[in-house]
Amino acid sequence: MSPTQEKNAARRAPSAHGSGGAPAAPRRRGRFLESKVADWVLPGVLVVALVALWQAIVSFGGVEEYVLPAPLDVLDKMFGDFGTFAEQSVPTIVAIFVGFALAVAVALPIAVAMVYSEIVRRAVYPLLIIAQVVPKVAVAPLFIIWFGFGQLPKVLMVALICFFPIVIDSLVGFRAARPESLMLVRSMGAGRWQAFWKIRWPWALPSIFAGVKVGITLAVVGAVVAEFVGADKGLGVLLITARGDMDSLTVFASIAWLTVIGFVLFLVVEVLERVLVPGRKSGRTFEASGSL
Amino acid sequence: MAPAAAAPYVEFDAFTKSFDTGGGVVTAVSEMSFELERGEFLAIVGPSGCGKSTLLMALAGLTQPTSGQVRVGGEAVLKPYTDLGIVFQSAELLPWRTALQNVLLQAEIRKAPKAESDARARELLARVGLKGFEGRYPDELSGGMRQRVALCRALLHDPEILVMDEPFGALDALTRDQIQIDLQRLWMERRKTVVFVTHSIDEAVFLADRVLVFSPRPARIAAEFRVPLDRPRHLSARAGSVFTDLVGEIRGVFETLGVLSEEAK
């Protein structure tokens, strides 16, 4: 093939293979399903339909509010008592944020150490598994005994619960770099530091973010669980107190706000991923492959 | 004083490499000695798994011989030898970098001046027919184009030695013809010392000044041929009797070695 012919072949290539991750949808499905709008419209329609069904059941079925409050009443509560929810959200969000940051700050160096040292890998790996198998929710009461009813036990619970997926996916990521690529940069005179930042780190980022995404959703769970077990303030405390009062409306509104928080945090991570993962800005993807 | 013309530039001296596979020690290359002159194009053909790649990695200083020595310019290679470019069978382009950025990796690691490297990278890409593709990502390039980018990256710092490990093995026949011609042109301009490992006897004879034929593991040199073809060689040379006779002779060596057989095994 001459270079010119090859150029033509390459020009056609993106449409044939799909330039991003997802394969192109077959033609007959039509334009709408291929558009980005469909990604928002389809789940949006489903959610609205389900909420409408919920409203109808409550309105026309004569369900008591303490059993199942109507969605419109929940919405009204969420924004009507916005001040209370906002105030109680702050300690919860702070615990999520600090605990999550702690988990990332500990997980990444451990993953790096496990990649570079076989001794560390073989020593630490079984401990990681054991730490993951221990039911963390069952450990929560201990944290209260040790650290009281403040923020510290919450932060630790959050860190503990989101640590595992982050460290495991980071480990997979750091091992994804192809040995040939590492040999190549060594022959260019690269030291370990350069080989890490030019090759290992960018190869690892997609996988690290996969772990971070799982971690951030678990972080919300961790904070709420810690607040259930014992804390002086937070959305989880509000929720558990309201339950005691059979105030289902507040319970639902708290759950709704926790969902909003979790969703927003997830979106923040998504945006970070787009900014930090090289090649992602232009909508490109590459998959880190590798296993333990 | 200019060095004597025949002084060996690269020397493999009783090179031996064994691996401990867990199930016992396997000797990949045993007591192998050969030399290259500066500016020589040497091709190595041999069956799979005969330790050809090991030799290349040892020349690059990325692995050390179990015994024996590799010397460049009279000095033993004991750490990564950096006045050298490598091209692997898979292009090994970084998927998050464009063609140009992949070539410039070489300059970044070496901390070479930016503007100068950028200009040279663009020039090299243009010389292999990739002008206008500098901003493309590897998954937007064909296999042949990716391998050309890899070649440019290996040549960016104008190394004295070029090490190629089955670089065109994964390409289709037509692309392969074209890239062989391009490589010959580039080589004739700068006359670098090239060690080219391949499975293809045709490719070895077409490109090299000299062809070493390796035996199966543990590898030793089964035969050595000079290629008496003028340069630049044209694709039509492959139809000539000099070419076909030599290819036939090398195939004969493989038959003697039991690597090739007309009989069903």
Automatic annotation (TrEMBL), chain A:
Keywords: Cell membrane, Membrane, Transmembrane, Transmembrane helix, Transport
Gene3D superfamilies: MetI-like
Compositional bias segments (type: Low complexity): 11-25
InterPro entries named in the record: MetI-like, MetI-like_sf
SUPFAM superfamilies: MetI-like
Disordered: annotated segments: 1-27
Residue ranges of every copy of the ABC transmembrane type-1 domain listed in the record: 89-273
Membrane topology qualifier: Multi-pass membrane protein
Compartments, record wording: Cell membrane
Chain ranges passing through the membrane: 37-57, 93-116, 123-149, 155-177, 203-229, 249-272
Cited PANTHER family: ABC TRANSPORTER PERMEASE PROTEIN HI_0355-RELATED, ALKANE SULFONATE ABC TRANSPORTER-RELATED, MEMBRANE SUBUNIT
Protein family: Belongs to the binding-protein-dependent transport system permease family.
Name this polypeptide is given: ABC transporter permease
Source organism of this protein record: Actinomadura yumaensis
Lineage: Bacteria, Bacillati, Actinomycetota, Actinomycetes, Streptosporangiales
From TrEMBL, chain B:
Matches recorded under Pfam families: ABC_tran
Gene Ontology MF: a single term: ATP binding
Classification via SMART domains: AAA (SM00382)
Domain ABC transporter: 10-241
Domain of life: Bacteria
Entry keywords, A to Z: ATP-binding, Nucleotide-binding, Transport
Protein name: ABC transporter ATP-binding protein
Organism: Actinomadura yumaensis
